[in-house]
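User: My advisor, Dr. K., asked me to get a structural model of this assembly before our group meeting. I'm new to this, so sorry if the format is off. These are the inputs:
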Amino acid sequence: MSTASFTVQSRRRRRREKLLPWLLLSPALVLLAGMIYPFALGFYYSFTAYWLQYPKRFRFVWFDNYTDLLDEPLFGRAFLFTLGFTAAAVVVQVGLGVAVALLLHARIPGRAVLRALMLTPLMIPPVITALMWKIMMASTTAGILNYLLSFLGLGPVNWFGSPDGAVASVLIIDTWGNLPFVSLILLGGLQALPVEPYEAAKVDGAGPVATFRYVTLPLLTPFLVLVTLFRTMDSLRIFDVIYATTQGGPNDATTNLHIMAYQFSFQWYQMGKGMAQAIILLVTVVIASYLLMRLWNKASESTT
Amino acid sequence: MTVQAAPFAGPEPRVRARAGQRISVQLALVLGAVVLLFWTVFPFFWIVLTSFKTPGDIMTVPPKLVFSPTIANYMALVIGEQRGQYASSRPDFPLFFLNSLIISLGSVLLSLAAGIPAAYALARFEFPFKNAIAFVLMSFRFVPFIAFVIPLYIIYQKLGLYNTHGGLILAYQLITLPFTIWMLRSFFMEIPLEIQEAAKIDGCSWFGVLTRVVLPLSMPGLSVTMILGFMFCWNAFNYPLMLAGRQTFPVTVGAIQFISYEQVLWGQMAAATVVAALPQLLLSLMVQKYIVRGLTMGAVK
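Assistant: The format is fine. Below is the predicted structure of the whole assembly, which you can bring to the meeting.
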């Protein structure tokens, strides 16, 4: 009698313990469903002709939105700009990031203050960053940036008015906002490096350059790949800075896939086409991240 | 700090020939530090300066460092002094500021309410699909916002959620919920299991363990998650750009309203950027050490 009731009780308790995690998760799962549903709906829209002003013309068109893109001259340009900008941004930001991380890791006066200060661009809204630079990047020497450049014998650059200037300005603004992130992760990497290889390098008489090339850089690789992963994901999708400064112009020079999808959906109200472009952008991000994650796994295996 | 390897620092007494090299390295470091300081601080300095200038002092050749400062730009922000002719189209910045506060706080609180139990479940229990759920949460990090905003815009128009605080708070869950759950999970997992088992033996239910042991012990993590979540919401621009209207614009979308077809109100825009950035700068002082952890959703500590 007593053993029987004990097993019933423990079975009940076990069942309750099985249900408990789901009970705990349920509010989050409801919200999660509220996120997945719009995405699924949007995915469906990408196979439809959906003009917001003409809801009666709504119809299923299979892959037309995707195949139409091949005939859309802007798409090729936007796709190439997306990839090219990402490559440039990653190279510039990771390259400078290594330099800044080494600088902040070395013993220099006022290092703590410098570390705290250099964080600030990271924390303010990217669109605010863009507006700040927009004020500084006026095209004549009335703009402070061109005025400062004139002391170096450069410029004046027509920042937002010329295609090259516009691309450069977006790159500069994005770098200003994200260099702290790259530097911080790499600085964390430098601080976590083991001491022994450096002692061995010293014994072998390696100078600072050789030490950096043959000891620091290989050991830092996992961090370099990680920071490249994060920057690649965000650079492929950059929107705020471009929207606030060039709006994709001039002459579509700074139109990436994200801006293009926005223009199709919210300026021309072709929701199906905009959604198809968004999906292509998503696939691009996923493929790039997958490749970099594999690289990261390899890199972290080889160093540990 | 001293035991850690510093590739460019540290004395090398053995090689006298390198003394000169060492001095030049030190010089390069100091020069680099000065350049970095200038690059970081100058934009802030210039914007604050611009925000105190009259329209006539802003775009001059050469740019003016010395001028008679005015608080007209800030007054215009606060009391809408220059509304005048285009009253209906002038930005209402105090309202935008209030909207930012309401939406950001609401989003963080909703994410915490749903995220604390979820993170606890993911950190402490074994159950089917556990890793799948964690992965789905992480996968939101990959999706371009436009893929959410197009369907959300259509749905919100139909449901009457467009241009409402509630609708924005729900949309902002895309920003805060995955972040909150991943961060809290990583903080919860740091609490030793033994303490929780001990509490259980003392007669605590799972609820008691959570509220009396886990939450008090992860108070720092909880506040960091809240502050960073709040900051991410404050920074948000894409979702409100499409899903908010003039009554619900946050400061990020509000600041861009100073650019219109007729003109750009540089001075007021500068003042608006200062006001929009200020809370972020103050909050970031509190969470400095956790910023990287937050931005990588707990992947890098």
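One thing worth pointing out at the meeting: Chain B touches chain A through 98 residues (CB under 8 Å).

User: Perfect, thanks a lot.
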